[in-house]
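G., the chain you wanted modeled:
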Amino acid sequence: MSTSRSPASVGDASRETPRDSMARRFGAVIWPSFFAAGVATIVFFAIVDPVELATITWPDVEITRLAGYSIGFFMFWLCTLSACLFTAMLIAPPRQPLAHRDGRG
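Predicted structure as C-alpha cells:
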C-alpha cells in the first residue's frame, strides 16, 4: 500500500491567495508563542507563588492567584510573541524593489 499523495492533493503554492499566506504567517507566529508562554507559565509558577510575588512587587495591590497566573501568562505570551514575530521578520523573503516612478525598470 503506497502512502504517497498525488501532486494535486499536496497543494500548489501558486494557488495560495495573499489571505491564505497572511493567515499562515499569523498562525506561525501566534501558535508557537502561545505554546511557549504556556510552558513558561507552568515552569515559572511551579517555583513562584503569584500571591507572594505580588506582595513583593506591588505591596499596596491585593491580587488573587488566578489573576497572578493570568497576568503572568500574558506577560510570557507578550515576550514569546515578540521573539516569534522578530524571527518571522528575519526569515521573511525580501520584498521586491519598487519600480522607478518614471516608468523605467
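The CA atoms of residues 33 and 81 lie 5 Å apart.

Shout if anything looks off.
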